[in-house]
Task: inverse folding
């Protein structure tokens, strides 16, 4: 199972809306005869790869797989049928598939066909690996990561707005890698106007994550790196309250930039955006926005992990930008301690990430 | 010399205005026959302790000492004379004494008496150990440490001012220990009014560090923990511009609280305060003040080390308190990277300390 989990992790950042899955096949004597992992939605599942590699040697053997085999026709045929057809007699599963189209049905089908199924092996590790997928399936929203870079005195820019660069090259490379693990990267209109960011993984993910601008006012610049969609797709999301003139300007923008897409949400909120992104198959998104949108995302439960890069610098400045806007907290009793997840040096900078409870 | 440095460190926080000094005596055969360290200003120096322990066995032996022996009559007689009288023939010294009353005079006296003197052994370690003393002697100001506790989003209080407690018990215990290494702890009037702090080492240092309030307006509360000087001394420092009425109120306050002291500075600034504290023999002070005073202290070069305790919490709030006020920086090129000195977990919190260059 540890090997199967390693295999599963190889697909990280490329399987959405599907989960990460790894599988190994042992022959009747317990020899490893096949390995596979799910590499990309629409391509064969892990079990199919592993069974194909094992061929006839799978007969009478064991399949070890990190997630319950599917039993439904999606873009590929059900795996349960393939497992049975391959002559496997024993299946070891880490966790059930929370997808309501499966939800125990795969295991039931295997048992009905006379196979022995052992479930729950390394379940905690498997759940952690597919935390984003499980979160989307159970909540209807992608898992939200929030990231910022700040000075040791908690500033994300000087008083005059200058912010390039607070963190060093290693920390910025880490951000590119983080983006490669996400299906979408979200900023607000303010960040777009101030920073004109590129928001790509610098080629570490193919395709690049969807770049999303969530804007209430639709006060969008005529020129922005995000409007060039040759490197990566861009989506502008807004609510029904966007002014008509701005709406018309966005139409113009979209006709001038064929790859640029617009999306009207039922309301302009972080949760409405995430629900729409979940429907598009995003398992995990990265908030790279300014303080107001970040605070709104936290308040609406759209942030499951916070990662702060802390640079050994002091920026000062009373009106200088800070990472978070108003959270509406009235007493220190309301302030939660977030469990720390990871502490790492990135060159001169420090990365500290915290995980929301629940 | 390593042993002598260890001995020297035993006096940490109690020798001001004197430096930390450790000494060992080896007899003519190289056997360790005496050890000593300077424990408190006004008491015998390290060499005297070590020579007394060695007694007659010092004759023909070697003295290893972390700082050049003094050659002047202070509160105790000169050590150079004692070393010569004890019959020591060889002296190994880590660093010269930068005090202009010594400044090579001790070593010269020993050499003139026919002793062999080897200098510069473990000099870097010795200089680090006495960084505060050397800083005061060479700059006329005590070494300044600045410390704050903040949430991961860089806040030192909620929007409504609540701040107890951002950091956990281990981090607060570390602050008490830090205070025990300092000769004075400084706050501004704002912190006094908002937090009514106690500012002691909770008994880890005897006497407790001097508690200092630097106030321009002298708008002081009638009741404050700092006015009770049974635990620790308190000094109120202000400039000549303090309003007459407030001056009179401070006089009343002082007559009601006999241990409370006032000090009028030539001007109400961090550097004027530090010069006055250096004259009182402070080698090292701790800034525990609010953002404006902290920023002023940094701008005036009164901070040589910043230590931030970072709690895994998010406070948010646009008008919430942040660690530093305006530093007057106009571009990211003006922002320095401070060399990191120490990174440590304190329970759930993180301690990161940075050291100013130079």
Result:
């Amino acid at each position: 199972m540890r090997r199967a989990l390693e295999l599963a992790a190889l697909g990280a950042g490329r399987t959405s809306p599907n989960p990460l899955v790894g599988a190994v096949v042992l022959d009747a004597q317990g020899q490893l005869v096949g390995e596979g992992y799910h590499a990309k939605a629409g391509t064969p599942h892990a079990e199919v790869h592993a069974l194909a590699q094992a061929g006839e040697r799978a007969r009478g053997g064991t399949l070890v797989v990190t997630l319950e085999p599917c039993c439904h026709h999606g873009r590929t045929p059900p795996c349960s049928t393939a497992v049975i057809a391959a002559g496997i007699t024993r299946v070891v599963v880490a966790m059930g598939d929370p997808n309501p189209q499966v939800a125990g049905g795969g295991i039931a089908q295997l048992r009905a066909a006379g196979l022995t199924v052992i479930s729950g092996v390394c379940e905690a590790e498997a759940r952690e690996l597919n935390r984003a997928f499980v979160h989307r399936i159970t909540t209807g929203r992608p898992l939200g990561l929030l990231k910022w870079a700040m000075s040791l005195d908690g500033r994300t820019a000087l008083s005059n707005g200058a912010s390039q660069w607070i963190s060093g090259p290693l920390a910025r490379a880490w951000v590119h890698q983080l983006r490669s693990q996400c299906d979408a990267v979200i900023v607000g209109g303010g960040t777009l106007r101030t920073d004109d960011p590129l928001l790509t993984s610098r080629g570490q993910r193919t395709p690049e994550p969807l770049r999303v601008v969530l804007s209430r006012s639709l006060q969008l610049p005529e020129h922005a790196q995000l409007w060039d969609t040759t490197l990566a797709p861009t989506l502008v999301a807004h609510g029904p309250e966007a002014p008509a003139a701005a709406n018309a300007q966005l139409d113009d923008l979209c006709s001038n930039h064929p790859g640029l897409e617009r999306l009207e949400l039922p309301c302009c909120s972080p949760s409405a955006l995430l629900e729409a992104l979940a429907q598009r198959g995003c398992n995990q998104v990265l908030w790279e926005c300014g303080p107001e949108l970040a605070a709104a995302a936290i308040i609406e439960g759209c942030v499951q992990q916070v990662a702060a890069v802390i640079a050994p610098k002091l920026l000062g400045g009373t009106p200088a930008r800070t990472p978070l806007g108003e959270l509406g907290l009235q007493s220190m009793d309301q302030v939660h301690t977030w469990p720390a997840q990871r502490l790492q040096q990135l060159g001169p900078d420090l990365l500290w990430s915290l995980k929301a409870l629940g």
About this structure: The mean pLDDT of chain B is 93. The first helix of chain B runs from residue 2 to 9.
